[in-house]
Amino acid sequence: MYNSKISGLGMYVPENVVTNHDLSEMMDTSKGVDN
Fold first, then answer.
1. Rounded distance, CA 30 to CA 33, Å?
2. What is d(CA 23, CA 26) in angstroms, rounded to the nearest whole number?
3. Region of 10 on the Ramachandran plot (φ > 0 left; ψ -120 to 50 alpha; else beta)
4. Mind listing the pLDDT tens digit for each residue in 2-29?
5. What is the three-class DSSP state of 8?
6. Predicted pLDDT of residue 17
7. Chain centroid to CA 15
8. Could you tell me the CA-to-CA distances from 19 to 1, 4, 6, 25 in Å, in that order?
9. What distance in Å separates the CA atoms of residue 13 and residue 27, rounded to the nearest whole number?
10. Residue 29 pLDDT
11. What's the pTM?
């Protein structure tokens, strides 16, 4: 049989979380999506 062990868990949270609203203010989204 195989023996396994979880030796650690990690997590990273960035300092600045950019929301969709923030992105829409930075970019011109008035045209919408052109297909």
1. 9
2. 5
3. beta
4. 899 888 889 888 888 889 888 888 887 6
5. coil
6. 86
7. 12
8. 47, 39, 33, 10
9. 24
10. 65
11. 0.38
